[in-house]
Amino acid sequence: MTERRNLLPVAVFCAAIAVSLTGCAAALVGATAVGISAATDTRSVGTQIDDQTIEVRVITALKGEDRLDDSRVQVVSFNRSVLLLGQVTNSSLRDLASHLVRNTQGVDRVHNELKVAPVISIGQISQDTYITSKIKAKFIADDKIKASDIKVVTENGEVALMGFVERDIARQAIDIARNINGVTRVIDAFE
């Protein structure tokens, strides 16, 4: 009985610590996920950092341009290639976005897949997220495809695939993505 009384304050203390550290736990889990992602990525850590830096630079350049305020532009960088997906109100804004990206330090190539169209709805964004998750699940289930080698981005039903893979793996990945319900087009941005 004495042991139980002694354990009660310890249990309360541990519970208090656990509750107060929930933010730290979330940060630890997030940092671990980033570390695992970095470790399984085919790019070197330096290239991954370069790509993140390029994304920040491009996003900053696009946000600094008031004419793009009514647009939706997703920016993805992989091995110094930048993919632009989204919607702009006219073709001159599409060209402007390309120009801003090409003039961004560190960018080697631009894949401009921006569409002149109204900005998509939150419902479509949710559907795109679902499509991306289905494709990634199919890649994981396929024993020939290393899912961590392929970056999948979906915008308005169009799926872009980026990464370093052999041509036969790229074809297989494209075929898998093409056959997912809701996919209207697959963009081959493989290297």
TrEMBL record:
Residues 50-118, 127-191 form the BON domain. It holds the Pfam family BON. Keywords: Signal. The keyword DNA repair does not apply. Residues 1-25 form the signal peptide. The keyword Protein transport does not apply. This is Osmotically-inducible protein OsmY. It comes from Pseudidiomarina andamanensis. The gene is osmY.
